[in-house]
Amino acid sequence: MKPQSDFPSRxxxxxxxxxxxxxxxxxxxxxxxxxxxxxxxxxxxxxxxxVIKIAETTGVDIGWLLGFGSDEExxxxx
Length: 78
Prior knowledge:
CATH architecture: Orthogonal Bundle
Number of helices: 5
Distance between the termini: 28 Å
């Protein structure tokens, strides 16, 4: 399985674990809500800039967000 195919499920998990919504994540990250919706659905693959912005803003490891590492828990940055 290609790591980018894990991005939608990792993004959904992140949103759930943060106890937030796509709309709130959009406000926090500056990524348009419509774009986040497409990323969650897996119909659009985000640019590296967007992935970095989401990871940095939420404090998660970029590799984890892209599908590397454990599916069991979110990997946080230090």
